[in-house]
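pls design
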């Protein structure tokens, strides 16, 4: 294999906690990969963007956005993700991702629950979908079903709608993260209609009886025009612990990646490892350390060994949090820079 790019959302800790977290973390392989590099740059990211740094990087790398730094205001993932679910978007039509959600109402603001924590079953997701679908058909914006938490809406006239990704909006005050544009009011009206359809729905009553959050709204984002042919990004993308829409951008056989499967591919690849996101969003730093420790054993150590013995030509690491990403490249030659101390200090530079 020539080059492997490893994308690690939320692998950069919060700056104020980094020093304390890194005192606990034992990750010599990651330290070697970050210390002995040929290039290493920290790229800042405007927190006013409506997506996260790794989402902007990924959209550009997969040719699903024209702007490498998120200036396009949203990542155009919907149409390509549809194909990953076996759906056939009509060329020239505009589609949005539409994901069942829980909006929590606090005293001073409304927030979006992390979609990973909703634990929405296929049976419940399908039932809520079928409840909402006739209304969408009636207004000429039909729905398509991907999985319990990943639906798609066709809205050809909504090219102006600027939406935030759910991971960017999670934990934030939604007053500044709701859709914007000429059709924002129509989107909000649609959201209100669905909220009424689902209010006191038996699915939600049963969920609350089990101690789960009600599905009381949806999140719309990722709008894109469907091309006549699918983007060629799926061939290079591998995922692990990724949300459904992101896994759907990869070929089915590449949605549970491991170092052995990726190294056996023999072609340049991008691997997105999403296991750190939920812990970081919830600020569960003990869980975050456990997840990173697992990545050390399962990914960093095997890839360092592959570099040293020549099975891997070059490794690029893209590590991010909400406001920046760290982009480092290493190789067998770079790992011979014995004069460079092996530390995790670059994780504190953010």
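designed seq:
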């Amino acid at each position: 294999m020539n080059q492997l790019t490893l994308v690690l959302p939320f692998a950069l800790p919060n700056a104020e906690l980094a020093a304390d977290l890194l005192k606990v973390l034992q990750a010599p392989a990651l330290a070697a990969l970050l210390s002995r590099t040929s290039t290493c740059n920290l790229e800042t990211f405007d927190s006013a963007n409506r997506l996260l740094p790794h989402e902007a990087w990924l959209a550009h790398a997969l040719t699903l956005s024209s702007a490498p730094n998120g200036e396009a205001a949203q990542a155009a993932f919907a149409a390509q993700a549809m194909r990953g679910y076996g759906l056939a978007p009509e060329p020239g039509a505009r589609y949005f991702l539409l994901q069942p959600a829980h909006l929590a109402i606090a005293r001073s603001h409304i927030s979006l629950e992390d979609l990973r924590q909703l634990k929405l079953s296929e049976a419940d997701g399908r039932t809520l979908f079928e409840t909402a679908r006739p209304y969408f058909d009636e207004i000429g914006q039909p729905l398509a079903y991907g999985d319990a938490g990943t639906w798609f809406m066709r809205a050809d006239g909504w090219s102006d709608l600027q939406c935030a990704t759910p991971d960017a909006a999670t934990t934030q005050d939604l007053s500044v993260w709701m859709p914007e544009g000429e059709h924002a009011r129509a989107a909000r009206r649609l959201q209100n209609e669905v909220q009424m359809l689902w209010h006191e729905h038996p699915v939600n009553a049963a969920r609350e009886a089990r101690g789960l959050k009600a599905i009381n709204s949806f999140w719309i984002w990722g709008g894109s025009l469907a091309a006549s042919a699918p983007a060629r990004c799926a061939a290079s993308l591998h995922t692990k612990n990724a949300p459904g829409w992101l896994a759907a951008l990869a070929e089915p056989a590449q949605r549970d990646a491991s170092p052995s499967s990726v190294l056996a591919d023999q072609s340049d690849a991008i691997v997105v490892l999403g296991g750190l996101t939920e812990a970081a969003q919830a600020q569960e730093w003990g869980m975050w350390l456990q997840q990173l420790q697992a990545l050390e054993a399962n990914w960093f150590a095997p890839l360092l060994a592959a570099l040293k013995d020549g099975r891997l030509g070059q490794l690029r690491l893209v590590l991010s949090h909400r406001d920046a990403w760290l982009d480092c490249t290493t190789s067998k030659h770079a790992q011979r820079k014995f004069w460079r101390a092996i530390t995790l200090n670059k994780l504190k530079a953010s």
